[in-house]
Write a structure and sequence with these properties.
The protein contains 17 helices and 13 strands. By secondary structure, the chain is α/β, with parallel strands linked by helices. It has 2 domains: 173 residues, Rossmann fold, CATH 3.40.50; 191 residues, Rossmann fold (3-Layer(aba) Sandwich), CATH 3.40.50. The chain has a 6-stranded parallel sheet with strand order 10-9-8-11-12-13, with helices on both faces. Helix 5 packs antiparallel against helix 17 and helix 15 crosses helix 16. The longest helix has 41 residues. The radius of gyration is 25 Å and the shape is globular. The protein starts with a strand and ends with a helix. The model has no long low-confidence stretch (mean pLDDT 93).
Amino acid sequence: MKIACIGNINNCMFPLTRYLADAGHKVTLFLLEEFQHFLPSADVFDSVDNVEIVELGWHHQNFYAVSANEIKKKFKPFDFFIGTDYSPAYFLKARMTLDIFFPAGGDLFDYPYRKMGNYKGLPEIFRIESWRCTKYQKWALPLVGCVSMDPANEFFERFLPKLKMEKIDRIPALPFLYMKQYSEEYFLKSKFSDQINKIKKENDFVIIQHCRQSWTCDKANLHYKANDLLIEGFKLLVENNPEKKCKLLLLEYGEDVEQTKKLIDDLGISQYVIWFPKSLRKDLLGIIKFCDVGVGELGRSWFSYGAVYEILAMKVAFIGNRNDAEFLSRSPELYPMLNATTKEEVFEGLDNILKDQEKYKELGQKSYNWFLKYAINKSVDTILKRVSEKNLNKKENKIGSFLYLKLLIIDSFVKIIVLLNIIKLKFLQLFSLSASGRTNAF
């Protein structure tokens, strides 16, 4: 079967394409407008020949530039569609729907709710088209065949009913890493290989937190990661274990990097912290693998996300914020971890691991076993089953007549605004030429 995978935000789609290709499917990965650290090359040191990669560069502000016919033509050869990010909006523009949608985050809680913002007179073409993309995203999401999403906290889950998606089939999140590629040779290719080996040899205990620095925002914000709790908990660890050489590794990534550096300076622990640049995942995993503990987000309870799965995949003990009561009834089994929501709990977790590292190496192995069983094997098997079922039953999702009417209205409205913008521009050009002619006459 020919499968189109659209978008690679958070490195979410490229690993899946490789599993699908291994199963004998012909797979193409279509890149939207992706950050450099979310390109396929961020995951591999060598080329991958069994997955075709096509760069589209689509995003919300160039929604107007891509016609429905162009979208239809591009995806007509394919039988199955898996998408993330803005892909639902673009598919709806061509009156198409996704078979599987993977919400990366903002495509569920942000994109469908964006406004046009403040403007005077006519909204600019890019602004009105960005707004149209928002509406299309909101209307497209209830039409997807199924949602690939692990159990999430109550705050995030509430967007499914808000978007009329609560009755759509749920399957596990996409397999987040292509586990077949990881070997000692792979990790040695990391550009940080020599540096992390030196750090490991010179210290008794190495901690990493590689998620974004984002902690000065409102605590209700979904991007709040409470990195400050780790910094303050780490200070307690250093103070209570003066005989041990401890290092905390952080990334220069996120809007609060400078605030974190200031906090570290204020607490007097700069000599115990090493900053790495924002890096590609293929280089980062070679760091994580050699750490004694990985710390995730501490601000809000989560079950799964990129950073935690990267830590589990490297067999490293994990500290994070997970309210087990939220997830026990919605997951067959929870991965082993240490929970922390305060600086004291962070210190306690770090101190326990420091004092019994062999015990927590076993915990890292158990977490890895869980990850392989549920986050990789079960995920891949479930998606392959959906593909097989689609192959047997070629029914397509139908777009209702009422939605067609709404799309017709919004398209007509946008065309009028665009036409008025063109007329306005032509008028201003003529006025400018006329004024220039009068000036020259004098």
